[in-house]
Design goal:
single chain; 15 helices
């Protein structure tokens, strides 16, 4: 057998063999699994079981995050006083799912809120001043960003200047200076005590809804985990810690979908069993290679609004039309990539 040059030139870093003490601590498991668990940092039976069963994290109170209390207070005030709000999203899968999740949840709590996703060709990525001015002129009192805003120092300053209360939720690494918004929720900002720094944009939107629900109720948190799984996997954040739990539970909801848009999208993607008319076993692979590309295609070729509307509609006919449209756009994207 000839070893390929690429294989021979690799530099293999092999983890050290577990010691006797570590092996005894994980005695319930097969020897190979013990080694793998130790390689990943799990050195007790309790830690291993927590990881393997994807249990919810023990320390995940959303109010630990800097800015969460102030954000919840302002949103609840807006709901109580019938103030208009907007969710300012992004055109990738993480941003679209986060926008849909937060809009649907706050509407369920009685809030007057609408989604806004910029057009990548006309407006570019993230906050822009003309969009903020348009939202202000449209009567918005509060704008909540999802998956963007942490680096938009000038745009945040402009929002304050025109009288918009801006709440930033973002999972990207901030610059040296934190924007002067009403509230900033980003576990990566300095001195934020939240233990898990790897949540996606839709994961943070979910944590904001979780915090709102503890004060007001009106939503079933579990019902949003399909969107969380979709955006989290698509954004390629580490599937460890809280993400592992959220995606595991979200996959269960995707396998028995209650969201008409996702059911229609699974249909055009070939993920529906023809006999049962129910989804086949959905995994992270199906999200990454079949569902997410179809949602992404809308924002890459035209506007992400078709993808957003698909996730938010309850209408069977509308969902079918939008799913077909996204499927067509994905085929066009594939042809452009080949070209």
């Amino acid at each position: 057998m000839t070893t390929s040059p690429d294989f021979a030139n690799k530099r293999w870093v092999v983890k050290p063999r577990i010691n006797q003490e570590q092996s005894e601590a994980l005695h319930e498991y097969d020897p190979i699994l013990r080694q793998l668990l130790v390689n990943r940092g799990y050195k007790s039976t309790e830690e291993a079981r927590h990881y393997l069963e994807a249990r919810p994290p023990l320390n995940s109170d959303p109010f630990q995050m800097l800015g969460m209390g102030k954000a919840v207070e302002r949103i609840l005030h807006a709901i109580t006083h019938n103030e208009k709000m907007a969710v300012y999203g992004d055109y990738d899968v993480d941003g679209v799912t986060a926008t849909a999740l937060l809009t649907i949840a706050i509407q369920a709590m009685g809030g007057d809120i609408k989604p806004y996703i910029p057009n990548r060709f006309d407006e570019g990525y993230g906050l822009n001043k003309s969009a903020l001015e348009e939202l202000k002129d449209g009567g918005m009192a509060v704008v909540i960003t999802v998956d963007n805003g942490i680096r938009s120092l000038q745009e945040v300053a402009y929002a304050r200047e025109i009288g918009l209360d801006l709440i930033i939720t973002d999972h990207h690494q901030p610059k040296d200076e934190i924007p002067d918004a009403l509230a900033v929720i980003d576990p990566k900002q300095p001195f934020d005590p939240y233990p898990d720094k790897n949540l996606s944009g839709v994961g943070l939107a979910y944590k904001l809804v979780e915090a709102l629900a503890t004060k007001r109720g009106g939503v079933v948190l579990e019902s949003y985990l399909d969107l969380v799984a979709l955006g989290t996997v698509a954004d390629v954040v580490p599937l460890t810690g809280e993400n592992r739990y959220l995606v595991r539970r979200g996959l269960e909801h995707l396998r028995t979908p209650n969201r008409q848009g996702l059911l229609s999208l699974m249909g055009v993607a070939g993920l529906i069993d023809e006999r049962s008319l129910r989804p086949k076993r959905i995994s992270t692979m199906h999200i990454g290679y079949m569902l997410a590309p179809r949602i992404n295609a809308a924002g890459r070729l035209e506007s992400a609004l078709d993808a957003l509307n698909l996730l938010m509609t309850d209408n069977f006919m509308e969902a079918g039309r939008l799913a077909q449209q996204l499927n067509l756009q994905n085929k066009q994207r594939q042809e452009l990539t080949k070209t």
